[in-house]
Structures are given as structure tokens and as C-alpha cells.
Write a structure and sequence with these properties.
The complex is a heterodimer of chains A (about 160) and B (about 625).
Chain A: H1 2-16, E1 22-27, H2 31-40, E2 49-54, H3 62-71, E3 75-80, H4 90-107, E4 115-119, H5 125-142
Parallel strand pairs in A: 1-2, 1-3, 3-4
Helix pairs in contact in A: 2-5, 3-4
Chain B: H1 4-11, E1 17-22, H2 34-42, E2 47-53, H3 59-70, E3 76-81, H4 84-97, E4 105-109, H5 111-115, H6 121-138, E5 147-150, E6 154-158, H7 162-173, E7 177-181, E8 196-197, E9 202-203, H8 204-216, E10 221-224, E11 227-235, E12 238-245, E13 272-278, E14 280-283, E15 287-289, E16 305-307, H9 308-316, E17 325-327, E18 330-332, E19 334-341, H10 366-380, E20 385-390, H11 401-409, E21 413-416, E22 424-427, E23 436-442, E24 448-454, E25 456-461, E26 463-465, H12 469-475, E27 502-504, H13 514-532, E28 536-539, E29 544-546, H14 556-560, E30 567-574, E31 577-584, E32 604-606, H15 611-622
Parallel strand pairs in B: 1-2, 1-3, 3-4, 6-7, 6-14, 7-10, 14-27, 16-25, 19-20, 19-25, 20-21
Antiparallel strand pairs in B: 5-28, 8-9, 11-12, 12-13, 15-26, 17-18, 22-23, 23-24, 29-32, 30-31
The chains are: A alpha/beta (about 160), B alpha/beta (about 625).
The complex binds flavin-adenine dinucleotide (FAD) and iron/sulfur cluster (SF4) (2 copies).
């Protein structure tokens, strides 16, 4: 009974595909191996999470985050190394940038809870799961972002 | 690379991406419909072929990629399999073997981040998305050349215990110059206090003397005792260590019987500091013995309660005949040994230390060591009764189980307790002249409560991580939840650390016995030697690059750059005359991308991890219509 229900729900979700997508920018030296360690422990977490391996999230300009929301990403979690960042000064510079992104999000009426910055280490399984579940609750509550000014996203990708 | 035409050409998207999806022998295919992912991938933009294999990392799996590259079917490669940390290098070298550039490859992690955390349709959908994202990036990948840096054929070993001595000797035998840094005046470390050792009963002092001789006599090894690393910078192949040698004389340290003192009497009249230029570092900083808390099994409350190292020391000094052991003039008619003291602690059962820590791991050496000690006693003093109170007997490895059999034959009496119901040690009040009483609910006799009067209790104390917090913060070393230094991967990269050019030897990494510490040390030394032996290293070319056409010379990147000297403004001759342009100094660039975020024209980007590639990945993730469900 439960199985059939799940299958139907999965199928519906897969066909309607309006998934509330969460983008996770995970540092290659801390958070990305951290996510792998969650996998090694076979702990499940929401499926709508897409983890991109990054060297340091400091490389992303303000517009990258806004573009993601415009493209339909519902939530973004930056999982950095925090104070353990191998690039001295990078964390600080990134944190300042994210403050500016929050200001811009407010102007565009994007709920700032959609963007979170957190530190995840290589063995931080519990904090990883907590962050992901928390963001999932938020995006389930908010749904995909609707932008005030409906600029088209800067997509180069054409459907096949 | 700086030829603008060439850059433009390279930026054209590849239309010949090959996608190779792994079953991982069921690890992936039990949860992800791999063939469905392949069908979907065939329709992604730019994809020429999509193939599957039971084990992509196997030779036949790699051969698929090599054949397609050789036949010109593909010019970009996406592998969808386990975490990239495991096999990125495998696939890069397969691509190189096919005669292609190893940087034309990207990876989709569909095991650790999909099949191991999700089941059913959701897993297949997510795998498709991750493969789609990887093809988005792969289409924009350019061939890159690794950065070549000179590497010093010189290695530094920190710690002069068994592992450090072994590592130093193996390194020197491989043709490297070696500096061995030991903070005490002695060589041999913790093993120097062990007298004879399990499983074979060799004299440990002889083992140490032999290892130390091999080190001290080798002309390529410089031994610095009473020395510590106080400064650290540089990068793999070219590290600089600031090493301080202090005045403190040997008497400031506890010398154990088995220690070797290389420079006795030489108390270096002035503290000195020197710079050691080295290519790589082997960490052999060892462990520290667990010190029981006051009252833990009567420790500190009763002088008849000893730790295992204390007992081993006293036993080695015994000079009595007869069939009953005598320690410090006291006859030991009966003694109890208790296993797992300070090891295998369980949340909710054992008391945390002041920082909320528990030693949840097994110390791996105490079972063998305490049974070896018990046999030593019983075989010399058969009338001394020994009660062995254990949770589990973990005498793993060759020749070790025999210690248990021998103890049983020697009439050691075994009693078993549960973690949540530890035995107690108290003053004996039964009127006899035994000092102590041990009480246990014995699992081997249906939890019968047994009281044993004894003259001595020995606690099989385990190992804790040594305090190397200064090295950890200086070198940015990863530490496990058990506080020991952590390797990259317990199976696939067992002596490597995530900091390139730093290796692990011996118990700095985890509890291990002497054989295992020597194995680890030899492995670390050979890894180090093979890293440095060419005299140069090839580093990943993930550095910033400026598109001169787009650069308007604002200098924003230079202000944002985190590395001194990695970015500079130059006067460039262009068709508009002399213009200011940014230029990257690749050897100094960290590849962090701080510059990428601030460039107003997008002229600067990171090679191999470009912003444009990330944008393409996001596009593929949101492009639902691409996915054929
Ligand atoms: C009670 C007990 C009994 C044991 N019995 C046996 C046995 O019977 N058989 C067996 O095979 N194994 C036994 N072992 C295990 C054995 O002791 C270890 O495997 C071995 O000592 C590990 O050697 P190591 O070089 O890794 O570490 P260590 O012996 O701890 O050596 C580390 C060295 O590094 C130095 N050092 C630390 N930090 C620094 C720093 N920052 N700078 C410079 N130098 C530094 C230390 O001074 C020390 O000399 C036993 C262990 C214990 C605790
Ligand atoms: S080796 Fe034996 S005594 Fe030591 S922690 Fe493991 S089980 Fe306990
Ligand atoms: S990538 Fe980092 S270190 Fe390199 S030039 Fe840019 S800011 Fe400087």
C-alpha cells in the first residue's frame, strides 16, 4: 500500500518535474567529501539536492546566485570549510559578498531563507543532514521562486 | 594559451562528449536504472555516445573510454560513478593513455551522492540530472597543461618513535636527504617502555636500537632531537619548516629503558632555530597512553591499581625467584587485569572527558599486550593467579590468537563483562589480607556475581591521539572524530593526507601495533620518495587566466586576489595603443577564484573550474525538458 503510494508520488513528481531544486555549493576539501561521507553512511536525505564541487565559493559573483533563482533554483546552500578554508581570507570575502546578495534578494522580494551559508567538515554527517533537511522544509514551504521583475534567465542551453 | 584566436576556438562547445556510466557491480545499479540514464544521456546536447559498464574503473571499463578517444568518437569525457576522490586519477590516466589531454574530463558522483542515499525513480532522476550537469561542464572544458614545479629531493620526518625511525631509513635508502625531528632527547618513542613485546616476545629495546643505528649511521639522515617545528609554509615539493632546538636537558624528560640517546651530554648550549627546506613531510608523532581518571576502577584511590605501561615497567624490573611474583617487596598472590580501559567507550554509558569526548575506538594493542604480560607472569610465576576481565578479546593478526590460547593453557581465568555493567574495584573488607576486591557479573557463568580478592589490579589502558594541535593548525591538517590525524581514504589512500605532500606514519593516524606502525611508515616513505624522486612535480593547472580581449584593466581582480603577487597589472600593446591589463603569475595563484567574482567584464576565470562551466551546470540541472522520463 505504502509502496504503491510512494511509486505514484514519485511518478507524478518525475513527470510534472516541478521539483523544488536545492543547489549545494560544496567545497572540494571539506563539504564535498563531507557529503560523500553521508553517502558512505547510507543516510538518506531529500532527492532534490544537487551538489556542485567547488574549490572555494568565493569565486561566485552576486549575480550567480540571483541568476540561479531566476532560473528556478528554489534554494542554495553554500557549504564551505568555514574558518578552516584553505585559502586565507576567502571565507571572509565570501561572507561579505553573501551579505550583499541578501540585500539584493530583499530588493527582488526573494525570501532570504532561500540562501544559506554554513560550514561542513569532511565528517560532519549530522550537520550536513540537518542543513539539507532544514532547507528542504523551507523550499517546500515557499515553492519555486517567483521573481518580481520577470527577467528571463541567462540560459545558453537550448533544449534538445 | 594566450593567443586570443586559440582561446576563442577552445571556447567553442564540444559536440563529442562521451558519457560512461558505471553499475558499480550493483552498488549503483541496484538503485539507479543505469540503462535509463544512458538513454537520457544520449539525448543531452553535445553527447556523441553514452555507454555503461559493470565496473568503469576496471580495465574493460577504461578501455571503452580509450577506444572512443582513439577512434575520434569523443573528445570530452564524463564518467558517472563513485565519488571523484576515488577514481578521478584512474580516469585521467586512462585518457592520457589514449593520447588525449587528461583535463577534458568531468565526473558525476552517482554512488555516494545518489544510489547510496536514494532509491527508486528519484535516484534515477537525480543521476540523470547530475550526468546532465557534468555534460554541461564537459562541453566547455579545455585541454590544460599541468604546472611543473621543481621539487626538493628532501623529506622531513616529524617524530622519532618506531614509525619515524622506520620512515627515515626507508626514505634515505630511496635516495632522499632526510631530516628527522624528535622533540625529546630520545629515539624510540612509547615503545621504549615496553620491555618484551607481543606477539613474539622480542626485546623491544633491541628493535629500537637496531632501527636507531640504521638511522644514525646513514649519512643522508640528519637527526635533530629536542627539536620542534615552529613555523611552516610553502607548497608540495617546496616546504619550509622553521625548527627550534631547545636547551632542556635529558633530565626534563622521562627516559625509558629502551630509549636510544643519540647525543648524550650534548645539551646544545644555546637554543637554535633553523630553516629546513624540504619537499614533503612524514608525520610520525605517535600516540599518548590513556591516563585513567581518579577513581576509574580504583585508580589513584588505591596504589595497588596500575596502568598497563606502569605494570610492564615494574615487571621488567622484577628480580625475584620463587613461584609467586613479587612487586616492590609485595607478594602478588592474585591479580586482576581489566580490558578496554579508556577505549571502546559508549555514549550514555561512559563518562565523557571535560571537553565532552569519548574514546569510542578500540585501541587494538591492549588485548595482545596484556595477554602477553599475563603469560610472562604465569610462565615465570605459576602460583600467581590471574583473573582476566574482558569485554571482547581482540587478539587479531598472525601469532596473536596464540597468546589467548597460551593464556588459557597457563590457567589464566577469564571472566566477561558487558560495557554497561563494568566490574568494580574496591578495598577488600572480607578480613583477609588481600588489599583489593574486584566484583564482576560474569557473562560466562550466566551473570553470576563473582568477588575476587586480589593484591593487584592492572588496567589495560589504551591509546589516545597525541597533542599535535600546533602542527594541525600550522599545516591545516584534517583530524578525525577520534582526534587522530586523518588519512584521505582508509583503503585507497591510507597514508596520504589531504594536504599534498604530507603523509602519515604509525600511531599518529590510529592505534596500531609495532608491525602495523612499521608497515604504515614504510608505505608513507615509499609514497614520499615516489612523489619527489623525479625532482619536479606536476600540479593541477587550476589557476586563473585573463582573456586579454575582455580585460578593461580596472584592477578589481588585483585588489580581490588573496595571494601576494599572483595577479599584476601590466602595460600591454594593443591595437588601441598601450593599455593596462591584468596578468596572472601561475606559480603563485592559489586557484581560489576570488578574482573571478569581482571582474566587471568576466575577463578572468578559473581554468578547469570556470564560472561559465558552473552556469552551464545549473542550466542543465534546471532544464527539465531535457530529461526524458
Ligand atoms: C600499553 C601498550 C602496550 C603495547 N604493547 C605492544 C606490544 O606488545 N606489541 C606491539 O607490537 N605493540 C604494542 N603497543 C603499540 C606500540 O607501542 C606502538 O605501535 C608503537 O609505539 C608506535 O610507534 P609510533 O612511532 O607510531 O609512536 P610513538 O612511539 O608514540 O612515537 C612518537 C614519537 O614522536 C615524538 N613526537 C610527538 N610529537 C612530536 C612533535 N610535535 N615534534 C617532534 N616529535 C614529536 C614523540 O616524542 C615520540 O618519540 C603497545 C602500546 C601500548 C600503549
Ligand atoms: S584491544 Fe582489547 S582491550 Fe584494547 S580496546 Fe580493543 S578490545 Fe579493549
Ligand atoms: S585565483 Fe585567487 S590567487 Fe589566483 S589570481 Fe585569482 S584571486 Fe589571486
Amino acid at each position: 500500500m505504502l509502496i504503491t503510494e510512494n511509486l505514484t508520488r514519485n511518478f507524478l513528481m518525475a513527470t510534472t518535474v516541478q521539483e523544488n531544486k536545492i543547489l549545494i555549493l560544496a567545497t572540494e576539501s571539506c563539504a564535498y567529501p563531507g557529503a560523500d561521507s553521508v553517502g558512505q553512511a547510507h543516510s538518506s536525505y531529500p532527492a532534490n539536492t544537487y551538489i556542485l564541487r567547488v574549490r572555494a565559493p568565493v569565486m561566485f559573483p552576486e549575480r550567480f546566485y540571483l541568476d540561479c533563482f531566476k532560473k528556478g533554483i528554489s534554494g542554495i546552500i553554500i557549504m564551505s570549510c568555514g574558518e578552516e578554508c584553505p585559502y586565507e581570507g576567502a571565507y571572509h570575502a565570501m561572507a561579505k559578498r553573501i551579505d550583499r546578495v541578501y540585500q539584493m534578494m530583499k530588493k527582488l522580494d526573494i525570501d532570504i531563507r532561500r540562501l544559506r551559508i554554513t560550514a561542513i567538515c569532511t565528517v560532519c554527517n549530522r550537520p550536513f543532514l540537518k542543513e539539507v533537511n532544514m532547507m528542504n522544509d523551507i523550499v517546500q514551504e515557499l515553492g519555486p521562486p517567483v521573481l518580481k521583475e520577470s527577467q528571463p534567465p541567462v540560459t545558453e542551453q537550448e533544449p534538445a | 594559451m594566450t593567443d586570443p584566436k586559440k582561446m576563442k576556438k577552445n571556447k567553442e562547445k564540444s559536440e563529442k562528449i562521451g558519457v560512461y556510466i558505471c553499475y558499480c557491480g550493483g552498488n549503483i545499479s541496484d538503485h539507479v536504472d543505469v540503462e535509463k540514464v544512458r538513454e537520457a544521456a544520449e539525448k543531452f546536447p553535445g553527447v556523441a555516445v553514452a555507454r555503461t559498464n559493470s565496473f568503469m574503473c576496471s580495465d574493460p571499463g577504461q578501455e571503452l573510454i580509450i577506444e572512443d578517444l582513439k577512434n575520434g568518437v569523443v573528445d570530452r569525457v564524463v564518467v558517472a560513478s563513485c565519488a571523484p576522490s576515488l577514481h578521478e586519477n584512474t580516469f585521467r590516466s586512462a585518457i592520457t593513455r589514449a593520447g588525449a589531454n587528461p583535463y577534458i574530463y568531468d565526473h558525476a558522483n552517482i554512488r555516494e551522492q545518489v544510489s547510496w542515499v536514494l532509491h527508486g525513480d528519484k535516484a534515477t532522476y537525480k543521476a540523470e540530472k547530475l550526468v546532465a550537469a557534468a555534460t554541461g561542464k564537459a562541453g566547455l572544458l579545455e585541454p590544460l597543461d599541468p604546472i611543473r614545479v621543481n621539487a626538493r629531493k628532501h623529506a622531513t620526518v616529524i617524530g622519532g618513535g618506531i614509525a619515524g625511525l622506520k620512515a627515515a631509513r626507508v626514505l634515505a635508502d630511496r635516495g632522499l636527504e632526510v631530516v628527522l625531528i624528535e622533540k625529546t632527547p630520545f629515539l624510540g618513542g612509547n615503545a621504549a617502555g615496553l620491555d618484551t613485546v607481543a606477539p613474539l616476545g622480542e626485546q623491544c629495546s633491541a628493535l629500537i636500537a637496531e632501527l636507531a643505528k640504521g638511522v644514525l649511521e646513514h649519512t643522508a639522515i640528519t637527526v635533530l632531537t629536542r627539536s620542534e617545528v615552529v613555523g611552516f609554509n610553502g607548497y608540495v615539493g617546496n616546504y619550509n619548516l622553521q625548527v627550534k632546538t631547545t636547551l632542556s636537558s635529558s633530565s626534563a624528560f622521562d627516559k625509558a629503558a629502551g630509549h636510544v640517546v643519540p647525543f648524550e651530554g650534548d645539551n646544545a648550549d644555546t637554543p637554535t632555530e633553523q630553516n629546513v627546506k624540504t619537499g614533503a613531510v612524514v608525520l610520525a608523532t605517535g600516540f599518548r597512553s590513556y591516563q585513567p581518571k581518579t577513581g576509574e576502577y580504583g585508580f589513584d584511590d588505591h596504589r595497588e591499581v596500575l596502568t598497563l605501561p606502569e605494570f610492564i615497567k615494574q615487571l621488567s624490573e622484577v628480580n625475584c625467584s620463587g613461584d609467586i611474583l613479587e612487586l616492590n617487596g609485595r607478594k602478588i598472590r592474585a591479580m586482576a587485569v581489566i580490558h578496554c580501559v579508556g577505549s571502546r567507550q559508549i555514549p550514555g554509558i561512559h563518562e565523557e572527558d571535560e571537553n565532552g569526548y569519548l574514546n569510542e575506538y578500540c585501541s587494538r594493542t591492549c588485548c595482545s599486550s596484556i595477554l602477553h604480560a599475563a603469560n610472562t607472569v604465569k610462565e615465570q610465576f605459576p602460583k600467581t593467579n590471574i583473573y582476566d576481565l574482558y569485554r571482547d578479546i581482540r587478539t587479531y593478526g598472525r601469532g596473536q590468537e596464540e597468546l589467548y590460547d597460551r593464556a588459557a593453557r597457563n590457567r589464566v581465568v577469564f571472566l566477561r563483562f558487558e560495557a554497561g555493567n563494568s566490574p568494580t574495584v574496591s578495598a577488600n573488607d572480607d578480613g583477609s589480607d588481600y588489599a583489593l576486591k574486584v566484583t564482576i557479573e560474569d557473562g560466562l557463568t550466566f551473570s553470576e556475581e563473582i568477588e575476587v580478592p586480589v593484591d593487584l589490579v592492572v588496567l589495560a589502558t589504551g591509546m589516545e591521539a597525541g597533542d599535535v594541535s600546533d602542527l594541525v593548525s600550522m599545516m591545516k591538517l584534517p583530524v578525525g572524530t577520534d582526534k587522530f590525524l586523518q588519512e584521505v581514504h582508509p583503503k585507497l589512500a591510507p597514508v596520504e593526507m589531504s594536504v599534498s605532500g604530507i603523509f602519515l606514519a604509525g600511531t599518529a593516524q590510529a592505534p596500531m601495533n609495532i608491525s602495523e606502525a612499521c608497515n604504515g611508515a614504510a608505505a608513507a616513505a615509499v609514497k614520499t620518495a615516489s612523489l619527489l624522486s623525479k625532482g619536479y612535480l606536476e600540479l593541477d593547472p587550476y589557476v586563473a587566466a585573463v582573456d586579454q580581449d575582455l580585460c578593461r584593466g580596472t584592477g578589481a581582480c588585483v585588489d580581490a586576489c588573496l595571494a601576494d603577487g599572483a595577479l599584476e597589472m601590466i602595460d600591454a600593446e594593443t591595437e588601441n595603443g598601450t593599455e593596462k591589463k591584468a596578468r596572472v603569475v601561475p606559480a603563485l595563484c592559489l586557484g581560489c577564484g576570488a578574482c573571478v567574482a569581482v571582474c566587471p567584464t568576466g575577463a578572468i576565470d578559473l581554468k578547469g573550474w570556470s564560472l561559465k562551466q558552473y552556469e552551464a551546470m545549473v542550466d542543465m540541472i534546471v532544464a527539465d525538458e531535457l530529461i526524458d522520463i
